[in-house]
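To whoever is on call:

I kicked off a structure prediction for a single chain this morning and the downstream step that reads the tokens threw a length-mismatch warning. I double-checked the sequence; it's 147 residues and nothing unusual in it as far as I can see. Pasting both halves so you can look.
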Amino acid sequence: MINALVYAEVSIGFRTIEDLEDALPADLYRREDLPYEAAFLAGKCFLRYRRAGGTRRSPLPEFYIGAHAAVAGYRLLTRDAGRYRPYFPTLDLIAPEDRDCDRAPNFEPGRVLSEGMTPRGWAPTDRRATRSGLPSVLSRPTGRRPE
């Protein structure tokens, strides 16, 4: 499942919308709108970030993506567990560098999952998931193992 924010982040790696649609076909990657509950939670996380000395003037995409996963009960695939853990401590994160996600390094924004870095236990809908440059993907647990 992806939302418009994930779609926007992924789009930077593609020249045309048709190329992006080929990499993220709607029949394999369900699109969901951001729930209002998630927007509310993202705002609260942003307020906490600002009160802790954060300098950004508008909420970061990670707040919206993390809040969407949290309120919908999704697992979140990311290479940036360090950005999500402080604001969404109960969110089930899947991070390739650290399966426990507690000690995951804080990666730079825009770094993406590269080919061959599918974390153990994550069941991609399609092999293109690791080749499409997805920075984060919301998914429900399936119990399947990757191929």
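Update from on-call: the warning came from a stale cache, not from the record. Cleared it. Sanity check on the structure: Residues 99-136, 139-147 have pLDDT under 50 and may be disordered.
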